[in-house]
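Sequence, please.
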C-alpha cells in the first residue's frame, strides 16, 4: 500500500526530483522519518539561484506537483517527466508569489515604546543549541509588569539559528494568546533583530515565513503591538527556555541508548 511518505519522499521518482532541486546543503529524505519531520526540514531549506524565487518557499509546490502528476497518471493515463514536475512547481510558485498583495506594515501591527492601553503583556524568550539544531521556547502572560498570570514552554527541533528560535517563541506566544481569547496584547522580546524585522518587514530568509505568520496572527487581536525589552526583564522566561532546551537535548542523547 502506497503511503504519503513514500509518495512524496521515497519513491524513485520523488527521490530524483529532490536530488535535482538546488537546495542549499541539499535535501535527502531519511527512511525512518515521518512526514512531519521531513516537512519541517523542507520549510527551512533555501533554494539557490538561478531559480529566482527569492524568499518564496518551493517545497509546497513540489509536493503539489507530485500529487498532480500521480492523479494524472492514475485517472488520465498521462505521464510527466521529472523535469516537467520540477518546472511545474517553479512556475506555480512564481505565479503565487506574483499574486500576493503587499499590505503596508502600518496596517498590520505596531511597534511601540510604551505599555499603555494593553490588557496583557506577553514576554517570550528562546534558548538555542547549534549542535542539536534545537530550541527551548518560553513565554509568560502578565497582568502588569510584575504580576505573572501564567507561563508556558515547548521544545522545537530543526531550528537553524537563534533568531529563528526567538521568532518561534513569539509566534507560539501569539497562538497561545489567541487560544486564550486575549484581545489587547503587548508582546515583548529581547531580540532587537526580531522586533526590527517585524517593524520593517524581514529581509532575512530564515524568518520570512515566521514574520508572515506573525502578520496573519495579528489580525486576531483588537490591539497588538511589539516591543524590545532588556534581557533583565526576561530572567524568568530565559531560565524556563534554557531548562526546556536542556531537557530536550538530554532526551535526544538518551534515545540511541534505548535502541
Amino acid at each position: 500500500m502506497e503511503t504519503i511518505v513514500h509518495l512524496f519522499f521515497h519513491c524513485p521518482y520523488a527521490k530524483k526530483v529532490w536530488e535535482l532541486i538546488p537546495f542549499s546543503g541539499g535535501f535527502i529524505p531519511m527512511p525512518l522519518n515521518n512526514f512531519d519531520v521531513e516537512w519541517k526540514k523542507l520549510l527551512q531549506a533555501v533554494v539557490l539561484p538561478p531559480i529566482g524565487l527569492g524568499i518564496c518557499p518551493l517545497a509546497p509546490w513540489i509536493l503539489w506537483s507530485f500529487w498532480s502528476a500521480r492523479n494524472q497518471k492514475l485517472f488520465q493515463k498521462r505521464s510527466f517527466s521529472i523535469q516537467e514536475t520540477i518546472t511545474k512547481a517553479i512556475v506555480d510558485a512564481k505565479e503565487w508569489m506574483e499574486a500576493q498583495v503587499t499590505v503596508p506594515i502600518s496596517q498590520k501591527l505596531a511597534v511601540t515604546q510604551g505599555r499603555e492601553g494593553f490588557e496583557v503583556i506577553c514576554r517570550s524568550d528562546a534558548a538555542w543549541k547549534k549542535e542539536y539544531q534545537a530550541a527551548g521556547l518560553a513565554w509568560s502572560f502578565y497582568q502588569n509588569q510584575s504580576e505573572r498570570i501564567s507561563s508556558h514552554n515547548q521544545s522545537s527541533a530543526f531550528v537553524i539559528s537563534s533568531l529563528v528560535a526567538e521568532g518561534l517563541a513569539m509566534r507560539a506566544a501569539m497562538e497561545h494568546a489567541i487560544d486564550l481569547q486575549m484581545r489587547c496584547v503587548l508582546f515583548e522580546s529581547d531580540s532587537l533583530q526580531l522586533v526590527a524585522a517585524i517593524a520593517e518587514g524581514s529581509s532575512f530568509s530564515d524568518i520570512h515565513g515566521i514574520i508572515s505568520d506573525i502578520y496573519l496572527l495579528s489580525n486576531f487581536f483588537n490591539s497588538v503591538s511589539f516591543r524590545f525589552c532588556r534581557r533583565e526583564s526576561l530572567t524568568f522566561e530565559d531560565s524556563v527556555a534554557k531548562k526546556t532546551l536542556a531537557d530536550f537535548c538530554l532526551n535526544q542523547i538518551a534515545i540511541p541508548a534505548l535502541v
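The chain has two domains: 4-96, 106-258.
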